[in-house]
Design brief:
The chain has helices at residues 2-23, 300-311; strands at 43-47, 52-56, 62-74, 81-90, 93-98, 106-108, 111-118, 136-142, 166-167, 189-192, 199-201, 206-211, 214-215, 232-235, 241-245, 247-250, 259-260, 265-269, 280-288, 294-296, 315-316, 323-325, 330-334, 339-340, 345-351, 357-359, 362-366, 371-381, 386-395, 407-413, 418-419, 424-431, 438-441, 449-451, 466-470, 476-485, 491-501. With 502 residues, the protein is mostly beta strands. It starts with a helix and ends with a strand. Among the domains are: 166-304, Distorted Sandwich (Glucose Permease (Domain IIA)), CATH 2.70.70.10; 310-501, Immunoglobulins (Immunoglobulin-like, Sandwich). The protein is built from 2 helices and 37 strands.
């Protein structure tokens, strides 16, 4: 009953905001008046190194904050920021934070704190994404509080966490054909999925302010809304805008001006628009930033909290960060961002593409040959629960530093509650390679299956992904591998973890 009343009040506030903005044309759509009950819990400040400020938390407590240091690590290939670490003093106590990169808020003193973006990403990236004018952006929540109001936010796709490739906050996008000097540092969250199959749902209650090329008049200026035929924007009671991009199809009920509830279908996941040809949802939150500009409100911590509350996983392996290196450079593979509901991970086990193995949360390796490698991380907790994730390592061809090596993307559907004897659809597409075929190994001892995708010659080709189906005869955790080699033997591989229930 309480949730129903909360939702009713939220919708009433949204309806009032949209009507008021529509009627009063000189009121900026960017700054709707927010009911305190729906005000964001997070507090955001931008600081330069050496600068300090006082932050009033959502519970009324105050903390003194100073940015002490910023260290950014760049690669020798693109000069891209691969890691940015700030040292922050909170009420006199220092803490180091890495910006973005699948890092969650840390607790120190009275607060939870993270760093969503640093200034170096502006130097060869896109400053307008974040609206950051200083050295770093810090976010604060009271110690022990939720990150976003309970019941007001859910995971925006109907699929398993890390079901396929992701590209999250601050990760440089190492894709396409030519290696370009200007870098697209990812803002927002690319959640890979199965094209034409995975449902995209509303993460919040909200008003549809744009759907395709149609936009409400009050949201055409001084807002982050950038309409496109494959894009939907929602505005929620926090005053945050939500972008859903690359939709294969927008639900017919999603029309500008309509108030929708969280969980309603926005559309079907696809690769329309500027997707690069791989099927995913680009999900991004925009809010007014301390600079006064619109900018991305980093969303990884929010979607992880929402997924954890909805599905209550006991264990989640995480070695998500992608790596882009030259042959024989040392790369660090990390599993220490994995999650255990009772903090009881006992084992980190690695199986590498060359057949070797290792143990430990952090592993260093070298790769002598170019290609895309997908390395297996297995985590085990004290109760015997296991989970898997895969580290993607892209090794550049040292004789051709102008172009990327072949890549590959795979997905499967459904990814939740798969049952013995029920067929699963697998999709795969190669990039920068039209030679040969993709070869599937479904991990259950069955014969391999060969298919042939189009190699992404035309990124928006409706039939670009090659499709096959497979049925498992026993319950268990299956590690699926698919690979495709170029004519010179350079290989791309990727893996999926499929859990099959009785």
């Amino acid at each position: 009953m309480l949730n129903s009343l909360l939702r009713y009040k939220c919708c009433l506030i949204l309806f009032t905001v949209i009507c008021f903005q529509t009627q009063v044309t000189n009121l900026p759509a960017a700054d709707p008046e927010i009911d305190p009950e729906f005000a964001p819990i997070v507090r955001v400040v931008d600081l330069n190194v050496g600068e300090s400020t006082s932050v009033t938390l959502s519970n009324g407590e105050q903390v003194q904050v100073k940015l002490l240091d910023l260290q950014e690590t760049r690669d020798p290939i693109r000069n891209a920021v691969r890691s940015a670490i700030v040292t922050v003093e909170v009420d006199g106590e220092p803490i180091k934070l890495e910006s973005g990169m699948y890092n969650l808020p840390q607790t120190i003193g009275k607060v939870q704190i993270d760093c969503s973006i640093t200034g170096g990403y502006n130097s060869n990236g896109t400053p307008s994404f974040w609206g950051l004018d200083k050295d770093a952006r810090l976010r604060f929540w009271p110690k022990g509080s939720p990150l976003i109001k309970p019941g007001s936010f859910i995971y925006p796709v109907e699929q398993r966490w890390f079901a396929t490739r992701t590209w999250y906050d601050n990760e440089p996008v190492d894709g396409g054909h030519e290696i370009l000097p200007k870098i697209y540092y990812h803002s927002g969250l690319d959640i890979g999925g199965a094209e034409k199959l995975t449902r995209v749902i509303a993460a919040t209650d909200g008003i549809v302010v744009s759907a395709g090329d149609q936009v409400l008049d009050a949201h055409k200026k001084d807002t982050p809304v950038a309409p496109r035929y494959d894009v939907v924007y929602l505005l929620d009671a926090r005053g945050w805008y939500y972008r859903y991009s690359h939709l294969h199809q927008i639900n017919d009920r999603i029309k500008p001006g309509r108030i929708i509830k969280q969980g309603e279908e926005i559309g079907i996941l696809g690769k329309k628009g500027a997707s690069g040809g791989w099927s995913h949802l680009h999900f991004e939150i925009k809010s007014r930033q301390p600079s006064g500009k619109w900018g991305t409100q980093a969303g990884y911590a929010f979607i992880w909290e929402a997924y954890r509350n909805q599905y209550q996983p006991k264990l989640v392996a995480n070695t998500r960060r992608k790596h882009f290196i030259l042959p024989n450079e040392t790369v660090t593979l990390r599993g220490d961002q994995s999650y255990s509901a009772d903090d009881s991970i006992e084992k980190y086990e690695w199986t590498f593409s060359d057949g070797t193995t290792a143990r430990g949360p952090v592993i260093k390796r070298k790769y002598p040959s170019p290609g895309i490698y997908s390395e297996v991380l297995k985590v085990t907790d004290k109760a015997g629960n296991v989970d898997y994730d895969f580290a993607e390592v892209q090794v550049l061809d040292s004789t051709d530093r102008e172009h990327y090596v072949p890549r590959i993307h795979a997905s499967y559907w459904p990814s939740l509650q798969n049952k013995v004897g029920e067929p699963i659809t697998f999709k795969v597409r190669s990039f920068n390679n039209t030679y040969g075929e993709e070869v599937w190994d479904f991990g259950d001892g069955s014969p391999t299956i060969s298919v042939k995708s189009d190699g992404n010659v035309k990124p928006l080709n409706e039939d670009g992904y090659a499709i096959t189906k497979h049925t498992y005869q026993k319950p268990g955790d299956y590690l699926v591998k698919v690979e495709r080699s170029r004519e010179d033997g350079v290989k791309a591989e990727t893996r999926l973890h499929v859990r099959v229930e009785p």
